Amino acid sequence: MTTIRIGAGAGYSGDRIEPAVELAEKGGLDYLVFECLAERTIALAHLRRLRAAHAGYDPLLERRMRAVLPAARRGGVRIITNMGAANPLAAMNATVAVARELGLHGLKVAAVTGDDVKHVVSTQDLPLDDGERTSADIEDRIISANAYLGAGPIVTALERGADVVITGRVGDPAMFLAPMIHAFGWQEDDWTCLGRGTMIGHLLECAGQLTGGYFAVPGLTEVPGLARLGFPYADVSADGSAVLSKVAGSGGLLTVDTCKEQLLYEVFDPSAYLQADVTADFSTARFDQIGKDTVAVSGGGGRERPARLKVSVGYHDGFIGEGQISYAGPYCEKRGRLALDIVRERLQLTGLSPSELDLSLIGIDAASRTGRGGEPAEVRARVAGRTVTRDHAAAIGAEVEALYTNGPAGGGGSDSRVREVVAVASTFVDRHIIQPSVVMEVC
Amino acid sequence: MRLHRLAHVRTGDKGDTSQISVIAFDPKDFDRLERRVTVDRLLAHLPNLPVRSVVRHALPGLGALNFVLEGALRGGVTRSLSLDPHGKTLGAQLLDLDLSEKEDLSQ
After folding, report:
1. Stronger pLDDT, A38 or A131, i.e. the higher one
2. Which residue of A has its CA nearest to B78?
3. Is the whole model's pTM more than 0.90, yes or no?
4. Strand (E) or helix (H) holding A329
5. Are A267 and B66 a contacting pair at CB < 8 A?
6. Is the ipTM of this complex over 0.90?
């Protein structure tokens, strides 16, 4: 029975580069997928594109391509990625340039477009996911709107012989599903196979999170070699079952437990995981450890896909200003609380009053909700506030810094920052308005 | 008997919603987890989460519980003022949840 081997080259935009090279060189792959678009990434990419027409793709694209293309070419490994972000065509051109530089003539690079639906969202009044607002409420602040496309256009690119397929926003599992559809000829209403393929894609899409990343609790769940974590691959069969593994000798581990964690990661109702191509059912998944770092996946399924496509809308939403300062030694918690009280009062006195304020002590209650008794050795006071203007955001950090000479005893290591908020809301569009297209260049 | 003896935990997020899975190391322990790791006890262990709704999905075949906490992330990763706007540090705070049952006292 023929299987295809699909590897995960990146689980997010800033992921390590070496594990993808290891996979390209030693993994015996047929396909290598780089997943590099989080919720907000594409809106930030649109902002870059507004400033420069050739910008808007993932900043690490050239570096990743330069690192893997030679080995991928030698091994016949086809690459699929959403590093196109807000500008898949520019990403295609940049990849072609890298390939020519490396002497990889004949390499076929394709770009998939059609996910950009800003013109639709900003001219229609569509309900947003919080149930309280519509797109008209944020119309003058909208930066981008991108629909989550399915596997279809990627399959088209593969059928045309593309060695590298670069997309904008697509459903993450769709990048893994496309090679399966291309290899096995799954029909667009074969919900069972599409659901299983989506499940395999979801297991792989966060790369190291399947092979022991985001898993270790020393003393409870040990993971060896996290600094040399090997990324996973799947050997997929035509019936949608698969065997998951990683390059022998690489760090990490791949077990039934790491698989279960990744299966449910960012999933709400496991029996109804909505994607453009299918409503997948993960609840009947089955994992069997059949060897060291080797797990067989079976079960899972799907039913009819949703009528509409999810859209992520990026919009300007003011600023967040932040300041931090540390206290150590006896009474550090009391000094930290005093520091927070002073800054709260200062912001009221100076009329800055951010619309929302977050005051906490790192080491006690900034991330922890449970609290622990006893005197800590050190704390770090943290103030964060939401403001309309950049200047008001900067004032928050300035008030924290002023605690050096005006605040409690022994404050040190003050730091501050201002962040321009690019928020994301979601809505839905009818799938028939989408017109994807595939463009290809030969190096 | 603390949760970490029987289960491991992972946290995810999407929009304003936090997702926490609790997975038995040994599927034989799932029944106990299902009895003791309820929505009420989770919320009591992580006080003051601004949740609008909490749903618990049970997956006995996988020995897993999946909690979906809508609204827990105060606007979500793109808007939250929190030090940890994804809420990724939340689930691990369940590791010392008390799973003791009356039978344990006689041991």
Report:
1. A38
2. A423
3. yes
4. none
5. yes
6. yes
Q: For A304, which DSSP code? A: P
Cα maximum dimension of chain B: 50
- Per residue in B59-89, is it b (16+ CB within 10 Å) or e — as a string? beebbbbbbbbbbbbbbbbbbbbbbebbbbe
Structural tokens at position A35? 């997943």
* Separation of alpha carbons A397 and B10, rounded Å: 33
Measured between its terminal Cα atoms, the distance across chain A in Å is 34
Nearest CA to B21 out of A212, A268, A378, A365 is that of A268
Residues of chain A in contact with residue B83, where contact means CB-CB under 8 angstroms, are: 360, 362, 366-367, 382, 384
Give the C-alpha separation, B99 to B4, whole Å. 10
Residue A402 CA: distances (Å) to CA of A58, A105, A370, A419:
38, 60, 31, 20
From CA A76, how far away is CA A142, in angstroms rounded? 42
Structure tokens at B92: 């691990």
pLDDT value of position A129: 84
Cβ(A209)–Cβ(B11) under 8 Å? no
Q: How far apart are the first and last CA of chain B?
A: 12
DSSP 8-state class, residue A127: B
Question: If you average pLDDT over every residue of chain A, what do you get?
Answer: 96
Query: Cβ contact (<8 Å) for A129 and B17?
Result: no
Chain A interface test: which of B81, B88, B93 (most A C-beta within 10 Å): B81
Secondary structure of residue A400 in the 3-state scheme: helix
Q: How far apart are CA A364 and CA A377, in angstroms?
A: 11
> Per DSSP, which regions of A272-332 are E strands?
273-274, 279-281, 286-291, 294-298, 301-303, 308-328
Taking CA–CA distances from B88, the nearest residue in chain A reads A367
| Cβ proximity of A229 and A252 under 8 Å | yes
Please write the tens of the pLDDT for every residue from A7-21.
999 999 999 999 999
CA–CA min distance A432, chain B (Å):
25
User: Can you tell me the distance from the alpha carbon of A40 to that of A247, in angstroms, rounded to the nearest whole number?
Assistant: 32
Q: Per the structure block, which two tokens stand in for A165?
A: 């397929």
Burial label, A88 (beta-carbon count in 10 A; 0-12, 13-18, 19+): buried
